[in-house]
Design brief:
The complex is a heterotrimer. By secondary structure, chain A is an alpha+beta fold. Chain A has two domains: 227 residues, Rossmann fold; 121 residues, Nucleic acid-binding proteins (OB fold (Dihydrolipoamide Acetyltransferase, E2P), Beta Barrel), CATH 2.40.50.140. Chain A is 24% helix and 30% strand. Chain A contains nine helices and 20 strands. The longest helix of chain A is centred in the middle third of the chain and has 18 residues. Chain A is globular, with a radius of gyration of 25 Å. The two termini of chain A are 41 Å apart. The mean pLDDT of chain A is 88. By secondary structure, chain B is an all-alpha fold. Chain B has two domains: 30 residues, no CATH class; 210 residues, MetI-like fold. Chain C has two domains: 52 residues, no CATH class; 211 residues, MetI-like fold. Chain C is 70% helix and 0% strand. In chain C, helix 5 packs antiparallel against helix 6, helix 5 packs parallel to helix 8 and helix 5 runs antiparallel to helix 11. The N terminus of chain C is likely disordered. Classes of the chains: A alpha+beta, B mainly alpha, C mainly alpha. Chains A and C meet through strand 2 and strand 10 of A and loops of C.
């Protein structure tokens, strides 16, 4: 059990001036389940590997508990790692795989076997102990990898996309198991994934990374309700939030006939001339086309429980005075409606943002404007 | 040839569902089987199988060669050769080359592989080390013969180097040491080949296994013992078989190195291959004897290969 | 959940622009300079240097007088250059020892045999690995065992038979044997290659209406080209260096292959102390392989290791 701290951690790859991880400052509390999420290449795996000691740290420090482990070997950090492809030794049985770390640590056999049995019972692997990994299904292999990590009773768990090699249904099943396992064991866990649904459902807190930089670290609700910049707004939540660029005018910003006033602090925070208005698909009210933003439905996605309408708005989203080339193409709009509603292609709708469902971002910097 | 209904698929072809008649194109393809295979089988049979059988048969006879008629006399040839000094030398030497040479090469190759993995320029080094394999053994033999010469005033390269650092020149090709000198030379010449094969096998091991072992706290030796060795075991087995087959065949290298051209080398340096050659095309031909020795060679190879496959067998590892 | 570490470091303008370190730090714990590694590295370099030195010595010796070879083995050749006949050894070997003829014989023999071997082995390997005929596995094994039969085992009967048919002392007879004896290895090697080709292509070609033979020639063969070339090269090297059968079966100088010529030359040369010429002969037999090797090393090595990967 321990806290984990990244203090300005930076990592470069050979030949690249741009760091893979750039000055990361992140504190993880004892027993917390922290998820690192972001698109490919954002540096989340590199961050995890720095923590595990598999990558060198070019600048900054990494602390586990009250020890500075930046230059400490992996073996002395008391961590366990679950790899994306499980890293099971193909020539060893499940039992030997799980016991491997303990064997290297020179634990006596009886104690080893005890611990392996415990872990196997916890993960429902008892009947597979004498099998080799090649004869296991993907889900079983994943559990063996978990078992090997658990059996060490380390201070920190590092998990590198452990679910990405499983099929969708198994993934849903397993993520609940992992989350409840972690709660039961109470070990600090750093979990890397590219899937924002996993991030939202499993993490106590979620850290969103992009291009090596930390975008926002917050609880799932916090990320969803108050994204700090355009990237986080568009990354979290599926289908993605509608992000509509509008021009700042005297009265405020105009969207579909309605004007959204800006407070003086908000105006001050705007660096350029444009503001991006963010509205989640569920944040629209359906109104008469004349009363709101006019949208022509182009596709209907029927999920049974919900229905998503994909369309584009005809309205000019930029103000007069813009030349034709500068105007943006008709902006795609996504609207959520109750499942099995009677909507169809070609239908003309009007949408209006619900009060309180607006997110405003400065277009040039991407940052969230101070709340009104 | 009409396709059978339940022919098991050859490795690599997708198994047909159920046991029904194979698709028409598959059946047509199968008709190619014998036409494609016959030339190979004919040549193989004529030049390898039949002569081998003939050799085995002849080994039970007392045939001196051209101009003599073979008289069958049971296992006399075998008892005779085992009492023969030359054969005993040859047998022991061949054994030494197979066993000691094999183990020596294996250890050397592994050492090199582990060091080379993390070195820069390892591809070039590997290519340089591989080169002696491409040189004709007869050329290598002559080369070594000259290198190991002992002649005061005109020392070979080896003695030249020894003397230049102040050591006494040695008679490398002398009776008692020649086998070991030859062994060393063979190991040197073949190491590149086995290093190459081993490196390819080690390269297949996924790096994340080593990473996990690092996290576990394994020392380099533990990583070797628990990961590298077991996961290259099957390639070691193949390499062992190749080495055995080649070691038994050793002929011109020793013949030229320890001898001098068309004169046979001294008996204590003989290998089984040289023995066969001498008893067939040497001064006093004795084909029956030569055949007996040839059969012994085959048996030796078989014994070693079977033992190796037993020892090193395991089910195929899939990563 | 005590800390609320919400950090946004977005605007790249206020971040100090830092230059990447020339070499990023290695992972902690990877000791670059453990004593074992240092020793190992030194040994490897020594070995490599030794190999290079040997090559240098060989090439140098081919240009030296016998005295030079033994007195100053490591010096650059000078005598012959001084007397204006640097290639004297090579000329000796080429003419006096008939290496010239032997060279041509060998080139022809090796080229023809290698091609024939592949021509015969490829269909066989294809048939054994892809046609799904019952018993293909054991049959392949049966042929592969041939690799383990030492040539000495078959030499005597073959000699007798070929003598009867008057094919001894004859490059054609030798070539025939070369082809037959190389089949086990080549078939074995090629079955591995053919097996690794995807099934769909044969099926697609069948759908297109191609006959099975057509499928083989126009589709499978080009795909296995890598394996075929590797087989060609490996056989060429092996045959170029083959000596035992050449010694047994070739008696006339005019029919000699290079290795056979070298073998005879050895005795004559050491009797006359013609070491320079001898090593020039060795150089002649080795150099073409060296050139081939430099051009094709990667392919040779990958071809071999593909077999090892099974």
């Amino acid at each position: 059990m321990a806290t984990v701290s990244f203090r300005g951690a930076t990592r470069y790859y050979a030949g690249n001036d741009k760091p893979a991880v750039d000055g990361l400052d992140l504190d993880v509390a004892d027993g917390e389940f922290l998820v690192l999420v972001g698109p490919s290449g954002c540096g989340k795996s590199t961050t995890l590997r720095m923590l595990a000691g598999l990558e060198g740290v070019d600048d900054g420090e990494i602390w586990i508990g009250d020890k500075n482990v930046t230059d400490v070997e992996p073996r002395a950090r008391d961590i366990a790692m679950v790899f994306q492809n499980y890293a099971l030794y193909p020539h060893m049985t499940v039992h030997e795989n799980i016991a491997f770390h303990l064997k290297i640590a020179k634990m006596p056999k009886s104690e080893r076997d005890e611990r392996v049995q415990e872990a196997a019972k916890l993960l429902d692997l008892e009947q597979y102990l004498e099998r080799k990994p090649a004869k296991l299904s993907g889900g079983q292999r994943q559990r063996v990898a978990m078992g090997r990590a658990i059996v060490r009773a380390p201070q920190v768990f590092c998990m590198d996309e452990p679910l990405s090699n499983l099929d969708a249904k198994l993934r849903v099943q397993t993520r609940t198991q992992i989350a409840s396992l972690q709660r039961r064991l109470g070990t600090t866990t750093i979990y890397v994934t590219h899937d924002q649904v996993e991030a939202m459902t499993m993490g106590d807190r979620v850290a969103v990374l992009k291009d090596g930089l930390l975008q926002q670290c917050d609880t799932p609700v916090g990320l969803f309700a108050r994204p700090r910049n355009v990237f986080v707004a568009g990354f979290i939540g599926s289908p993605a939030m509608n992000l509509i660029p509008t021009r700042v005018e005297q009265a405020g910003v105009t969207l579909g006939g309605a004007t959204i006033p800006l407070t003086p602090q908000q105006r001050a925070a705007v660096t350029g001339t444009d503001v991006i208005v963010g509205i989640r698909p569920e944040g629209w009210d359906l109104v008469d086309p004349a009363d709101g933003l006019a949208v022509t439905v182009e596709a209907v996605e029927e999920l049974g429980s919900d229905q998503y309408l994909y369309g584009s708005s005809d309205a000019k989203l930029l103000s007069e005075g813009e030349s034709v080339e500068h105007q943006e193409a008709p902006h795609p709009i996504v609207v959520r409606t109750p499942g099995m509603s009677a909507h169809e292609r070609g239908q003309k709708l009007g949408v209006r943002p619900q009060p309180g469902a607006l997110h405003l971002f400065d277009k040039d910097s991407g940052e969230r404007l101070p709340d009104a | 040839m009409t396709a059978q209904l339940s022919s098991p698929p050859a490795l690599g072809s997708t198994p047909r569902a159920g046991g029904g008649t194979p698709a028409a194109h598959v059946a047509r393809r199968k008709r190619l089987f014998w036409p494609f295979l016959i030339p190979t089988l004919v040549l193989y049979g004529l030049f390898l199988i039949v002569p081998t059988i003939a050799t085995v048969v002849l080994s039970f006879s007392d045939w001196k060669g051209a101009g003599d008629t073979p008289k069958f006399n049971g296992i006399t040839q075998y008892t005779r050769i085992f009492a023969d000094d030359a054969f005993q030398s040859a047998f022991v030497n061949s054994l030494i080359y197979i066993a000691v040479g094999g183990i020596g090469t294996f250890i050397l190759a592994f050492l090199f592989t582990m060091v080379l993995r993390d070195m820069r320029g390892n591809k070039i080094i590997r290519a340089i080390l591989f080169f002696p394999n491409i040189v004709a053994p007869v050329a290598l033999g002559m080369f070594f013969g000259i290198v190991y010469r002992y002649q005061p005033g005109r020392q070979g390269l080896a003695n030249f180097l020894l003397e230049s650092v102040g050591l006494k020149a040695a008679k490398f090709l002398e009776a008692d040491v020649v086998t070991w000198v030859v062994l060393g030379s063979i190991v040197w010449a073949s190491s590149g080949f086995y290093i190459t094969i081993l490196m390819a096998a080690v390269d297949r091991i996924p790096p994340y296994l080593y990473e996990d072992a690092s996290i576990a706290g394994a020392s380099p030796w533990q990583k070797f013992r628990n990961i590298t060795l077991p996961l290259t075991w099957d390639v070691v087995g193949i390499a062992g078989v190749l080495w055995t087959i080649n070691a038994v065949k050793i002929f011109e290298l020793v013949f030229v190195m320890a001898g001098s051209g068309t004169y046979a080398p001294p008996i204590h340096s003989w290998t089984l291959g040289i023995f066969v050659f001498d008893r067939s095309f040497g001064d006093t031909p004795a084909y029956g004897t030569a055949c007996a020795c040839a059969v012994v060679m085959i048996l030796l190879v078989s014994v070693f290969v079977v033992a190796l496959r037993r020892l090193l067998r395991r089910e195929a590892i899939q990563f | 959940m005590s800390t609320d570490a919400v950090v946004t470091t977005l605007s790249t303008e206020d971040r100090p622009v830092r230059k990447a370190p020339r070499r990023p730090k290695p992972a902690p714990g990877t000791k670059r300079l453990s004593p074992l590694r240092v020793i190992g590295t030194v040994i490897v370099w020594l070995f490599t240097a030794f190999n290079i030195m040997v090559l240098y010595w060989l090439l140098g010796a081919a240009f030296k007088t016998p005295l030079e070879i033994f007195r100053d083995p490591l010096a650059l050749p000078s005598q012959l250059f001084k007397s204006g006949r640097p290639f004297r050894n090579f000329i000796y070997a080429w003419d006096t020892a008939d290496f010239g003829t032997a060279f041509l014989n060998t080139v022809l023999l090796v080229a023809v045999c290698s091609v024939v071997i592949v021509l015969i082995s490829a269909p066989a390997a294809y048939a054994l690995s892809r046609l799904g005929v019952r018993g293909s596995g054991p049959l392949t094994g049966f042929i592969a065992i041939g690799m383990g039969i030492p040539f000495q085992t078959v030499v005597i009967p073959l000699f007798i038979v070929l003598a009867k048919v008057n094919l001894t002392n004859n490059l054609f007879g030798l070539g025939l044997m070369y082809v037959a004896l190389s089949l086990p290895f080549t078939v074995f090697l090629l079955t591995g290659f053919f097996r690794s080709l995807p099934d769909e292509l044969e099926e697609a070609s069948a759908i297109d209406g191609a006959s099975p033979t057509r499928t083989f020639w126009s589709i499978m063969l080009p795909l296995a080209r890598g394996g075929l070339i590797t087989a060609l090269i490996l056989n060429a090297i092996g045959l170029w260096n083959e000596t035992l059968l050449a010694i047994v079966f070739l008696q006339e100088n005019a029919n000699f292959t290079l290795s056979r010529a070298l073998f005879t030359f050895y005795n004559a040369a050491s009797y006359q102390s013609e070491y320079g010429g001898l090593l020039a002969g060795v150089a002649i037999i080795v150099l073409p392989m060296l050139v081939l090797y430099i051009l094709l090393a990667r392919r040779i090595i990958t071809g071999l290791t593909l077999g090892a990967g099974k």
